[in-house]
Amino acid sequence: MSKQHPANDQLPHPPVTADGVPEHIFRQAVEQSALAISITDAHANILYTNPTFQRTSGYGQQELLGRNESILSYRVTPKLVYETMWAQIKRQRPWNGLLVNKRKDDSRYLADLTISPVVDENGNTTHYLGMHRDVTEMHRLERQVQNQKTLIESVVDATQVAIVLLDEQERVLLDNQEYKKLIGDFGKEPAVKLLAALRAQMGDAFAKASDKHRNIAAREVCIELPNRAARWFSCAVSWFEEQDAGADAFYEPLRRHYLLLTIQDISELKRQQEALRINSLRALLSEQERIQGLRETLAGAVYQLEGPLNMLSAVTHMLERRREPGSELPAATALEEAVRKSREALETLRACIPDQAADATQSVNLNEILSDVLKLSTASLLGAGIVVEWQAAENSATLPAHPAQLSNLFKQLIANAVEAINEQRGSRRELRIACFTRPDCIEVFVEDSGPGIAEELRHKVFQPFFTTKGAARQHLGLGLAMAQETVTRHGGTIDIDPDFRNGCRVRIQLPRAAGEHHD
Ligand code: FAD
């Protein structure tokens, strides 16, 4: 309390402070304060308590007067706290801290206490002013938040999924143990690389989701890592909004947006899927090979039989023409009958030629098909010591197609190329496969460093039963004819590049739009 003016009994007015505030206002302010206020002597013996103090502690004014403030001590507050408190106030400095207090009814509360020394004109501490409030509830809430934070952090750390929180500038604010492991593998901030890959994959859709803070469901991205095998990750993005906790944003909320990226390493899963896909492709292609072998054998047999049968037909016609009218020629009749029966047998044989196995049309990624077929051919390519150059299309090379037929087509072309390279016995043993996306088609080149195909044969090689190798070498000459059949079914074209001089370059163009098939 401030100093009093010298008493003046003559004055009718109550005493006022130097500031002109009547002194009784000070008492009323203390009496009515929402803080628990006490005034003690220099040894903490209570001289005064306000009603809030009495309500908070549960003691009446008379029970408190003359007692030490230690009446409120619950004895769990460490001694050091009191020693620090006393050392501070004895140096005539205010002290603030938290004490566990005990009410009259033995219940406890957490007191946020401030003690100010009251110093007289001689510089001696005569009294202490104590002000405290019950902060048990606030402490409970703080602890609850802290406990929840610890719980969330341990759950997030224990999860097998990498989680990272980024601010609007995509700076990392928070991450978990799994994410930290990725930093070692990536060499630099994984989130930056993964978000760049997501942007490249999604194009405008990423920017739109980001603008509207729309979540992005799990997407698979492939990351090439230095000196390591490529890794696959399933990434999901969600955004959340936080209100600025700063004082200036109390009445004018400032919203900040954060990006939560969850990353799951699915490389092993992808490897298993790929192994499964390659194995089923291998099984499918070997079944197709079996059917194709049957087709080739039967078609070859029909082709071989047709020649002599045509000759027999010609002989029957000749005999018929030479027959005298009215005369019988039993041998001619028998021959005619034999030719008729043979034709029937030939038709039965033709009907036995199995159709090319028809798989359903679906959206097919040619990059994937070519890469799978190359993987399937790895053993034969390695065995032949052939250097392979594979250039995938940069953009998405998808088109509506029969995947098994296309796989078979490229397998056939690669087999032809390997055979041609083996024939050449030159020093260059190279196979190059390149895929390009053109505005209306996808173009694939299969180039080999073999002897090439002579200009006059470039068209003939696509004819059925045309072969440059001869039947003695088990060649029926149906491979390229069937390749052409497959390409035609897809509405595309296949030809041999006349300008390619270093071997043979087969060019296949397949339309990207549906509806051009000729099944
Ligand atoms: P005490 O024996 O009283 O003291 C413990 C230690 O404190 C001693 O070892 C000593 O180092 C130091 N100490 C105690 N008294 C003095 C002194 N007069 N001079 C120098 N050092 C001393 N305590 C509470 O628990 N709750 C309160 O709400 C509370 N309010 C207070 C309000 C005011 C204005 C003041 C001045 C003190 C208040 N205290 C309060 C402190 C209280 O007076 C006791 O010091 C404390 O409760 C510890 O009591 P104790 O009996 O356990 O130990």
- Ligand list: flavin-adenine dinucleotide
Structural class: alpha+beta
Write down the Rg.
47 Å
Query: How many alpha or pi helices?
Result: 13
- What ranges have pLDDT less than 50 throughout 5 or more consecutive residues? 1-9, 515-519
Helicity level: 40-55%
Strand arrangement, largest sheet?
2-1-5-4-3
What's the order of the H and E elements? HEEHHHEEEHEEHHHEEEHHEHEEHEEHEE
**Largest sheet, described in full?**
5 strands, antiparallel
Strand-residue proportion: 15-25%
Give the total of beta strands.
17
Shape: rod-shaped
Distance between the termini: 104 Å
Give average pLDDT, whole number: 87
In terms of topology, how is this protein built?
Layout: H1 23-31, E1 36-41, E2 46-49, H2 51-57, H3 61-64, H4 79-90, E3 95-102, E4 108-119, E5 125-134, H5 136-158, E6 162-166, E7 172-175, H6 177-186, H7 190-202, H8 204-211, E8 216-223, E9 231-243, E10 255-265, H9 267-322, H10 330-351, E11 362-365, H11 366-383, E12 387-391, E13 398-401, H12 403-424, E14 430-437, E15 441-448, H13 479-489, E16 493-496, E17 504-511
Parallel strand pairs: 12-14
Antiparallel strand pairs: 1-2, 1-5, 3-4, 4-5, 6-7, 6-10, 8-9, 9-10, 11-13, 14-15, 15-17, 16-17
Bound molecules: flavin-adenine dinucleotide.
Flavin-adenine dinucleotide binds at residues 38, 40, 43-44, 68-70, 72-73, 77, 79, 82-83, 86, 90, 99, 101, 111, 113, 115, 128, 130, 132.
